[in-house]
Design a protein that fits this description.
heterodimer, A: 242 residues, alpha+beta, 8-stranded antiparallel β-sheet, 7 helices, 23% strand, elongated, B: mainly alpha, Rna Polymerase Sigma Factor, Chain: A, Arc Repressor Mutant, subunit A, 11 helices, globular
């Protein structure tokens, strides 16, 4: 075929953009486009002409999992099981800051009645925070949303919602533990805003020592052991604070 | 995730930031365009899971190719829609499982019943022509040609599928499409 003829390229470009080419011819024409700028230009011209027709197609909402997969495949947050050092340092301090608010309810409040002592001072005076597991869950835009914390040998998981989550009526926000190996398991239900807590099935140490990540999904009812999670709305690292 | 109405210039800004590896901009670009693009993919491949695969591949492709996007050559939505349509058409054309699965998924459905589940593509073509103020030009195209054009563009039907759908020989369909495309080209070239 003589691809020097502009009218032929225009015809092929029209069929390519319009979609009538067979798979074999499509592949061949894709190769030609890469090699021949005139073919590429003819295709772009047809794309400019025809794309306005697509505007009348009603939009459809893809599932949250679609973005998660895109984010993972392009090297985003969800692709990293553990955060690199720089990220870690950047969110450690705010985590410690808000963690204090929760940890305070677990005992420190007796030592510090004001309960609003800056974390720097606490660390300075005590040398360290009590051994705890802390999870910071973020949304797809990387905004911190849930702070979950529990003392190392305790069974109470304290939750602080850093921003409100809109939950459809009759649904619950289920917190899941994502272990290094094996399936995710449910920990409990978190509130849509404010603070809350729930009793876990066992101590943090037993449940979370091999759990690098936590996630939240929207479920019809609190998940039972062995249940499969719906697509995750929020997720984040779970770290040992000692 | 609300669908934002976003100006082309804003999308260009976002694409420029995406080209520099800005993930926040990438997320904003996705939020602003994914529902429209997913709608386009879904009409072509018809199954949500396959349409989501198309959408994922298209956005991964957009992320990787953003640095090569040339604002002078195409509007952001044109660029993105082309990536999605190409991926959807590749998926449709290469997937022999498409028709088999579609039929299996709907136990009692026949091919024509399944076709009816999607809104009439001719209506979409007419709506688009109204929005672009080229309705008179479109109406000058003969009915069967218009119908064939709409089935191909919105549903990605092949020559033989269109022939089956409109009950005409494949040779006639090819001629209609070729003439129809020429007329459509003239209609759309009159756009500013």
């Amino acid at each position: 075929m003589n691809y020097d003829r502009p009218e032929l390229l225009d015809r092929l470009a029209a069929e390519y953009v319009f979609g009538t080419m067979s798979v074999r011819v499509r592949r061949r024409f894709q190769t030609i486009q890469r090699a021949l700028p005139a073919a590429q230009q003819a295709v772009q011209a047809w794309e400019r002409r025809l794309t306005p027709l697509a505007r009348s197609v009603p939009p459809e909402q893809p599932s949250a999992a679609a973005w998660e997969a895109i984010d993972r495949r392009t090297g985003g947050q969800t692709s990293r099981p553990t955060a690199p050092a720089s990220t870690w340092l950047s969110w450690l301090k705010p985590v410690l800051g808000v963690a204090f608010g929760v940890v305070a309810t677990l005992g420190l409040v007796r030592l510090y009645p004001t309960a609003v002592v800056p974390v720097d001072e606490i660390v300075q005076e005590r040398g360290t925070l009590p051994a705890s597991y802390v999870g910071l869950l973020t949304d797809a835009a990387n905004n911190p949303v849930v702070l979950a914390s529990s003392t190392r040998h305790g069974r109470i998981m304290s939750i602080k919602m850093l921003r409100r989550v809109d939950v459809p009526s009759g649904k619950v926000l289920q917190l899941w533990a994502l272990p290094k190996e094996g399936a995710a398991f449910p920990l409990g239900v978190v509130p849509s805003e404010g603070k809350g807590s729930f009793q876990m099935a066992d101590t943090s140490e037993k449940l979370l020592s091999n759990v690098p990540r936590l996630a939240v999904s929207v479920e019809d009812a609190p998940a039972r052991a062995g249940a499969a999670p719906a697509p995750y709305l929020l997720s984040g690292n779970c770290v040992k604070l000692w | 995730m609300p669908t934002a109405i976003i100006a082309s210039a804003d999308l260009q800004q976002l694409l420029a930031r995406v080209a520099l590896g800005d993930r926040v901009a990438f997320r904003h670009l996705y939020d602003a365009t994914a529902p429209s693009l997913f709608g386009v993919a879904l009409r072509i491949v018809r199954q949500r899971d396959r349409a989501e695969e198309v959408l994922q591949d298209a956005f991964v492709n957009a992320w990787n190719r953003a640095a090569g996007y040339q604002a002078a050559l195409s509007q952001p939505m044109t660029w993105l829609t082309a990536i999605v349509r190409n991926r959807a058409l590749d998926e449709l054309r290469s997937g022999a499982r498409h028709s088999a699965e579609s039929l299996e998924d709907r136990e009692s459905g026949t091919a024509s019943e399944i076709e009816d589940e999607r809104a009439d593509p001719l209506e979409l073509l007419e709506q688009a022509a109204d929005a672009l103020a080229v309705r008179d030009c479109l109406d000058a195209i003969e009915g069967p040609q218009r119908q064939c054009l709409a089935l191909v563009y919105y549903h990605g039907l092949s020559h033989s599928e269109v022939a089956g759908h409109v009950g005409s020989p494949i040779g006639s369909v090819k001629v209609w499409l070729r003439r129809g495309l020429d007329k459509l080209k003239r209609c759309l070239e009159s756009l500013p």
